[in-house]
Amino acid sequence: MAGIQLHEVNAGYRETRVLDSVDLSLDQGFNVVLGPNGCGKTTLFRVGVGILEPSAGEVLIGGENPHETPDTKREVSYLPHRPVLTNGLSIRENLELWGQMQNVPQERRDRRIDELADRFGFDDLLDREAGGLSRGQSQRASIGQALLTDPSVLFLDEATTGLDPIIAKDIREYLERLGRERTVVYSTHNLEEANQLADRLVVMRDGHVAFDEQIDTVRDQFLERPEVGVDVGDPERAREILSEMGYDPSRTDGYLTFEKQQDHEIGEIATELTNGGVDVRDIKTMSNTVESLYERVEVEQ
Question: 28, 130, 140, 256 — which has fewest CB within 10 A?
Answer without folding.
Answer: 28
